[in-house]
Recover the amino acids of this structure.
């Protein structure tokens, strides 16, 4: 089949080419945004990473497209409604790094709780071997609230238990068998917000989870709590985090994802867009507030990024493409219902 593959690192081209021998593949380094004018009318399969938007404009460049193989668990970068209307199926990578992302999330928590970033900066930048201003807090005995108890959330629970933390969780579809196995309890979202010392987000992003934590309910959080998010930026209203830090509701935040991440990386695209929305501008300003805040640890969407996880992502994507080519598609993303 005719495949167009947007890739990130040079070695990926040879890795994919070897495993998809017999297919005609066009490789483009970078994202769809980096190759905005590229068109391939005969392409049947498009392979992209999460940094590649695939919307109306992009899809118009591939009129014969039959399948999109995204190298990610999430798929909010793809316009599923247009894909559905054009009978284009989408496959994803449902499991590649549950331990990988959970390890990073716990790393963010430890960085916040023990002020690791400040410790390193004090020694490296100031040359001071001093503990002044670096007192943290124990995790043992604290309550962590896990939003979403899928594969990543379950790994986070296991780690928290290893640190002697009390675990509560919220999920629209509670897994009571998992709760019995790992020794945690499900509570309502409001109870989780009110009683958790640490709140960690492990949910998919969709219209129902958009701004799950927002400026209206940020005041429901336990005073002095910590928020960790390695899932999707849109789960949390950025202004709410800024408000929480400013008003002392939050002791700290650890984030690997932000709303409007693309504009943080390339703000000129927002400034010179024909009609920049007030919401996007406001979110970008709030992002800068967080980035510069001393009690906010911000990472560049890096939780997935280990050698092992990247290879698992590529291997699953190759298998997804092979399965589609054989007429036996798997790991298919459900089309939107409305």
């Amino acid at each position: 089949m005719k495949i167009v593959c947007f890739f990130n690192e040079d070695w990926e081209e040879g890795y994919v080419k070897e495993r998809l021998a017999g297919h005609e593949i066009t490789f483009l380094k970078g994202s769809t945004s980096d190759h905005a004018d590229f068109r391939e009318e005969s392409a049947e399969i498009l392979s992209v990473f999460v940094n590649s938007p695939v919307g109306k404009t992009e899809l118009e460049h591939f009129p014969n497209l039959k399948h999109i193989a995204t190298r990610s668990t999430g798929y909010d970068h793809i316009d599923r409604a247009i894909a559905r209307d054009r009978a284009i199926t989408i496959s994803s990578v449902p499991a590649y790094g549950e331990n990988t992302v959970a390890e990073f999330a716990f790393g963010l928590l430890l960085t916040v709780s023990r002020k690791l970033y400040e410790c390193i900066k004090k020694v490296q930048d100031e040359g001071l071997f001093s503990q002044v201003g670096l007192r943290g807090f124990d995790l043992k005995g604290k309550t962590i609230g896990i939003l979403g108890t899928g594969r990543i959330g379950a790994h986070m629970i296991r780690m928290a238990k290893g640190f002697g933390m009390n675990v509560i969780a919220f999920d629209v579809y509670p897994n009571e068998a998992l709760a019995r196995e790992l020794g945690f309890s499900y509570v309502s979202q409001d109870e989780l917000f009110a009683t958790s010392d640490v709140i960690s987000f492990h949910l998919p992003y969709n219209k129902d989870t958009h701004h799950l934590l927002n400026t209206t309910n940020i005041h429901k959080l336990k005073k002095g709590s910590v928020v960790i998010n390695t899932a999707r930026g849109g789960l949390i209203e950025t202004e709410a985090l800024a408000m929480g830090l400013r008003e002392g509701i939050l002791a700290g935040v650890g984030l690997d994802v932000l709303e409007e991440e693309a504009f943080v990386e390339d703000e000129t695209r927002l400034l010179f867009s024909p009609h920049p929305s007030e919401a996007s501008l406001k979110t970008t300003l709030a992002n800068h507030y967080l980035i510069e805040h001393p009690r906010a640890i911000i990472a560049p969407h890096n939780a997935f990024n280990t050698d092992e996880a990247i290879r698992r992502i590529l291997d699953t994507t190759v298998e997804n493409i092979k399965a589609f080519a054989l007429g036996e598609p798997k790991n298919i993303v459900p089309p939107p219902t409305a």
Remarks:
- Residues 214 and 237 are 5 Å apart (CA to CA).
- The chain has 13 helices and twelve strands.
- The chain has a mean pLDDT of 93.
- The radius of gyration is 21 Å.
